[in-house]
Write a structure and sequence with these properties.
secreted, NOTCH1_EGF-like, glycoprotein, globular, Immunoglobulin-like, six-stranded mixed β-sheet, 11 strands, EGF_Ca-bd_CS, calcium ion binding, about 5% helix, single chain
Length: about 160
Amino acid sequence: DIDECAIGSHNCSAAETCYNIQGSFRCLSFECPSNYRKVSDMRCERINCFNYLECQNTPVRITYYQLNFQTNIVVPAHIFRIGPSPAYAGDSIALTITKGNEEGFFSTRRLNAYTGIVYLQRQVSEPKDFLLDVEMKLWRQGTYTTFLAKIYIFITAHAY
């Protein structure tokens, strides 16, 4: 595998980030939706919300992740772990894949009250890109707070 990002042989624009994958690369750009501000390369935070329901149902934070696996990954495979940091006694989370799992390759499971995982539940037979939206709703002291993980998953051909 040649790291096109490191050696500069990619064709990503200045507004995009080059992400190396096995045998290739992807050009990714991260934009924050309106009412969010970029607080780091991979994270957006909500600026404000106007009523109780909107505050509960729109993510306080959107974080982007990139994961790279090969087609020969053994399933079920835990690929992503999520939970509040710090976690407190009494916290409880609910995880939902809200977008990107139309073919049912992925699922979620709670490991305990405040930790959940996303796992690959069936084999991906050929190289394929996914963008999963995974919503974590945190129940803490009588209030729900929503967090959104946008996970780019690149399944590449396995190297022989």
